[in-house]
Amino acid sequence: MKCENCTKKECSKKQKNDDTQSTSVDALSSNDGSEEKNEFDTLANAKILLSDCLACDSCMTLEEGARVFQQNQKEFFHILNLNKKCDTSKHKVLAVSLCPQSLPYFAAKFDLSVNEAAKRLCGFLKSLGAHYVFDTTIAADFSILESQREFVQRYQRRNQEEHALPMFASACPGWIRYAERVLTNLVTSHICTAKSPQQIMGSLVKGYFARQQNLSPDKIFHVVVAPCYDKKLEALREDFYTALYNSAEVDCVLTSGEIVQIMEQKNVSMKDVTEVAVDSLFDDLKEGDVVRHDGKRSDGYLEHIFKHAAKELFGMDVKEITYKALKNKDFQEVTLEKDGETVLRFAAAYGFRNIQNMVLKLKKGKFLYHFVEVLACPGGCLNGKGQAQTEDGKPDRALLAQMEEVYAAIPVRLPETNLHVQKMYQDWLEGMDSKKVQDTLHTTYSAVNQSTSSLDIKW
């Protein structure tokens, strides 16, 4: 989304001319002419400015810009081409993880059911050379369960710890980026420590799956297909990198739109691709039908945490949640009353303007909410800038409406009912309260001193 006045001073994002942008990118991507020619040379880069995301150039250093630039289709193809050569010592196991909010885009765009879209997308990626294609829903299961437990703990400590409440959701990297680079520790101390589904999936692929396959993590190249460009920045966080294996949890993030570009460059129609069942992390099992979590356009942290907290803290079984729209449709609240008293007050704040208002109230001490599901994109994750955009960079509202219908029709699965997750807590993570759970499924967030060096890059 566009970032307007997003720092304490005026936002430094300025309109740059094409020559300046091209020079900067050429400098970053220069390889002294030594790059090998291969079958993917004709593929074009996406013409998308990183400033279209919440993490605009005010929040990104020159070094980060260079590293993000490497997360494009060419890096993906570089691995594919290495795997075709005879030097097996350089081969990588290529694993691709699909975000649930990307699948409705492919389904709506190509007039498929969401299950057909998942299988055909899997078939296309494997035709390129991917060895495994996973669904990240299981990672969201872990993230939601850990967020639920943390909220209950924070609520119980609210009278002893100043920053226990409110708790802010941690799954949106645009929001996290803004909080760490622009806001103070007054805000970051309230962010839930549970890692996002993307990064938990990174831990599952480079940790659990690598061990199952008897592979070193650095022998796996892990790609995530996501609806949003900020996910590229999230993959670069230092706390999501294992120095021992010289390996990041997620090596490359491609947006849904970038995958469609690859299809177009290769003249492949989604409807002509052979359906292939999506892989599972467990032995030779395959995934069944696509499932999702509660929530209209995202992984539904608000609904899951609200219902869990109502049960755990007040013994109340909440079946349906009623949203009350406040200033706009992207700022809504949900409350729980017991004996005439409001005991839980949650909110969903989507879009930068609502985030600004929320932070202002927090700093003024006028914040009434116990939990807020914060998402940078208006309308939530389905409306990520990496998909459902028109050629002039505006939301494709007709396509987005179709995507919402597709997403709403996907069956909901409660994370508590996933038997694989429960088994992994015991067998892989050494119990729900173990140090390994903290090390694997959690991270920390704090204010960062931002360098003045920044860059607005064109993909």
From TrEMBL:
Main location: nucleus
Residue ranges constituting the Iron hydrogenase small subunit domain according to the UniProt record: 393-449
Family: Belongs to the NARF family.
Name of this protein: Nuclear prelamin A recognition factor
GO CC terms in record: nucleus
Compartment(s) of residence: Nucleus
Biased composition regions of type Basic and acidic residues, renumbered to the chain: 1-19
Pfam families: Fe_hyd_lg_C (PF02906), Fe_hyd_SSU (PF02256)
Keywords of this entry: Nucleus, Phosphoprotein
Matches recorded under InterPro entries: Cytosolic_Fe-S_CAF (IPR050340), Fe_hydrogenase (IPR009016), Fe_hydrogenase_lsu_C (IPR004108), Fe_hydrogenase_ssu (IPR003149)
Annotated region (Disordered), positions in chain: 1-36
Amino acid composition bias (Polar residues), ranges on this chain: 20-32
Subunit structure: Interacts with LMNA and binds to the farnesylated C-terminal domain.
